[in-house]
Predict the 3D structure of the following.
Amino acid sequence: MKKFLALALAMAMSLTLVACGSKDGGSSAPAASGSSDASVSVSGEGGTVGIAMPTKSLERWNRDGSYLKEQFETAGYGVELKYSDNDVEQQNNDIAAMIADGVDLLIVAAIDGDSLSNVLGDAKDAGIPVISYDRLIMNTDAISYYVSFDNYTVGTLQGQFVIDQLGLDLADTSKTYNIEFTAGDPADNNAGYFFNGAFDTLKDYIDAGILNVVSGKTTFEQVATPSWSTDTALENMQNTLASYYSDGTVLDVALCSNDSTALGVAQAITSDYAGSNAPLVTGQDGDIANLRNIVDGIQTMTVYKNVANEAIVTLELAKAMLVGETPDASLIDTFGIDCAYDTSSYDNGTGIIPSYLLVPSVITKDNLQELVDTGLYAWDGDYLKSTAN
Ligand code: GAL
């Protein structure tokens, strides 16, 4: 038996294929034509799971992919992991290929939540269950469960942080502050939750004139950032600064939905903002470059989501589904992770999708050690580095 396991392991290692070459991969190896960034391990005893991640260009998805792969392989499953370069058509093809390969279960973080109905319909027809990972996939009844963080709470944490930092008080309108918003990708169902969570939390202060959105851009559509692009966020902020702040108007807060956009916004503030104050800049994800900015005082906070825990929850859910169970709230006891089972919040257009929602937390310069305590980050001088390979 031992011999067999050793052989299986050796085979798994030698069969681990890595096909890179898309702009996601950052590898010099040429890509097979039409292929995305993929890694495949041999089918494990428990079967094989197909994992579709959106892109390698945003740091967190690299972490998600590697934690998921590690969790499932350690538990005895084969893993087919594909990154689709933020390209909707590519993700459709990648999922179709995994269905053709006969994976036993799919875990999908959608690039565009509205674009997977057909291919996931094929998964359903083939009897392959689907977990919607982190982002809710819309308009398909092929989804059995949703695993994510409480997305609205991510936004409320950002909004509440601003209230606390500025000491805002609805009864005191004598001090006023200027704020600008930067939101995420309209194709990502999460982005609206983040923005609404933040905006709803701050709305009373905006209505009272305590917070002024000088640009007047107060709707999600006006501040959305396609693909969560750092460059687009940078450009949009440069335009806002040039149009509304070049006369010396003070910017107090740049509320950004996540770290990739905060990176661009902070860059625009550093290069184009005329004022001498350091505006509060919010973010989300705990990306290494942003943690560096937090140490340097260029970003003020990030909402941290422990994606290693998200991978554990996904594994436990998949395990139960693969043996034919219908998991519910009681599954949470197996996680050892703070998590809620929600059967009312996430309707994907075909009905409510039962959801396991993990809990996000606020990280600032003062509690970076909490990240180190997770074991996923380590100190690197004054900064943090990732301990993931
Ligand atoms: C969201 C995700 C965030 C952030 C963003 C950019 O869907 O929940 O954590 O990473 O995408 O990729």
In short: Residues 1-35 have pLDDT under 50 and may be disordered. The CA atoms of residues 270 and 298 lie 8 Å apart.
